[in-house]
């Protein structure tokens, strides 16, 4: 038997990691400025995170959602405190795709409608409805294309107004900062217009915070930069710092009923312990503020680089758009500079998604390495 060959792989085999350092089987150390698609939020092998999970594993690692799990209630309280999302209820699942799948399903239940508005260069996951709202025909199978999705240009008021007049949409799904798409953002005016229009027309607004949430943008959620209130917020990635966990925050105006949503593994004891550890470290180490401050420092440093057309993003969800395609640059950074960075649908964009507890000296090392490859 072989692995199903769907991933182009770099010739690096990590065997251990701590902070933003990853060590391969040869003993070589790499600086991780990508965090496995923004997953590593508090650093690899953070001692509090490791101890939280180990301690929980000694007690109970899993039971289904047919029993009481006090860790879920502890998680709800902590999440409300740090996110300041007081008028929401939490449903836990296992991944970002599953979070968006449940968000879209719930929107359809709530409204009795089935059509969805999504935006150009969006990425919301690889499962049925989530992938249908992802702007990438190459990963949409015929079975996914049965979904009724209208893709609109980001920040196009006229196109949005024309689409919304049909009054048969259950949801608008939107990333406050596009991840895979290349760090584009809705303007505050556009986001607020969408929120107001959705409310007036009984349409569910879904804020996809799978990649931008949990402090990455310099606020707990990236939509909070725009002073709006979504109906559903999808979360995952940095939520578990590598442990598979996801969820949706559901506004109290959307009512629950038994059997409406469900999951076997979602919200299990280990997942809750991992997420609680992340929240505790974010709070104790003031990492959301650190994300904001170091994002500003990164942008200052980036102005010194040659070939940069645009600096994109917020906090530590950042992108450098060059006047050339970056695939070869990424390879050189890995193999010559021992540094991980990411790509996107925008082939000229280098994506930077480090742990939120990096330092200015780490950013200096990043730019020193990058400058060597831009000579």
From TrEMBL:
Q: Which cofactor does it need?
A: pyridoxal 5'-phosphate
Q: Which PROSITE patterns match?
A: AA_TRANSFER_CLASS_3 (PS00600)
Q: What is the lineage of its organism?
A: Bacteria, Pseudomonadati, Bacteroidota, Flavobacteriia, Flavobacteriales
Could you say which protein family the record assigns here? Answer: Belongs to the class-III pyridoxal-phosphate-dependent aminotransferase family.
Q: What residue intervals traverse the membrane?
A: none
What protein name applies here?
A: Aspartate aminotransferase family protein
Q: Which PANTHER family match?
A: ACETYLORNITHINE AMINOTRANSFERASE, MITOCHONDRIAL (PTHR11986:SF79), AMINOTRANSFERASE CLASS III (PTHR11986)
User: What are the record keywords, sorted?
Assistant: Aminotransferase, Pyridoxal phosphate, Transferase
Gene3D superfamilies per record: Aspartate Aminotransferase, domain 1, Type I PLP-dependent aspartate aminotransferase-like (Major domain)
Q: Which InterPro entries match?
A: Aminotrans_3 (IPR005814), Aminotrans_3_PPA_site (IPR049704), Class-III_PLP-dep_AT (IPR050103), PyrdxlP-dep_Trfase (IPR015424), PyrdxlP-dep_Trfase_major (IPR015421), PyrdxlP-dep_Trfase_small (IPR015422)
One of the entry's Gene Ontology molecular-function terms is: identical protein binding
| Presence of keyword Cell membrane | no
- Keyword Transferase on this protein? yes
**Can you tell which superkingdom this protein's organism belongs to?**
Bacteria
């Amino acid at each position: 038997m072989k692995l199903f060959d769907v991933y182009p792989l770099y010739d690096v085999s990590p065997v251990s990691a701590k902070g933003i350092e990853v060590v391969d089987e040869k003993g070589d150390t790499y600086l991780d400025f990508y965090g496995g698609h923004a997953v590593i939020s508090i650093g690899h092998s953070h001692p509090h995170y490791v101890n939280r999970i180990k301690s929980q594993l000694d007690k109970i690692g899993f039971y289904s959602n047919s029993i009481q799990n006090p860790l879920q209630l502890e998680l709800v309280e902590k999440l409300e405190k740090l996110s300041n999302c007081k008028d929401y209820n939490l449903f836990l699942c296992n991944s970002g795709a599953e979070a968006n799948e449940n968000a879209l399903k719930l929107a359809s239940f709530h409204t009795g409608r089935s059509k969805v508005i999504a935006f150009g260069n969006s990425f919301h996951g690889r499962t049925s409805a989530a992938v249908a709202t992802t702007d990438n025909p190459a990963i949409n199978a015929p079975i996914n294309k049965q979904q009724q999705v209208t893709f609109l240009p980001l920040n196009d008021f006229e196109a949005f107004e024309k689409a919304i007049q049909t009054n048969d949409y259950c949801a608008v799904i939107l990333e406050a900062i596009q991840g895979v798409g290349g760090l584009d953002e809705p303007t505050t005016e556009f986001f607020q217009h969408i929120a107001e229009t959705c409310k007036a027309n009984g349409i569910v607004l879904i804020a996809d915070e799978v990649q931008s949430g949990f402090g990455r943008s310099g606020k707990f959620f990236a939509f909070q930069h725009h002073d709006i209130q979504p109906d559903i917020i999808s979360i995952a990635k940095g939520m578990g710092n590598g442990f598979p966990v996801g969820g949706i925050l559901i506004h109290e105006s959307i009512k629950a009923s038994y059997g409406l949503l469900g999951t076997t593994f979602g919200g299990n004891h280990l997942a809750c312990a991992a997420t609680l550890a992340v929240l505790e470290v974010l709070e104790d180490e003031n990492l959301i503020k650190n994300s904001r401050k170091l994002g500003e420092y990164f942008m200052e440093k980036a102005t010194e680089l040659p070939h940069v057309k645009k600096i994109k993003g917020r906090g530590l969800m950042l992108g450098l758009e060059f006047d050339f395609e970056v695939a070869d640059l990424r390879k050189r950074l890995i193999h010559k500079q021992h540094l991980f960075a990411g790509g996107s649908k925008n082939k000229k964009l280098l994506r930077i998604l480090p742990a939120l507890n990096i330092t200015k000296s780490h950013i200096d090392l990043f730019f020193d390495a990058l400058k060597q490859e831009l000579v």
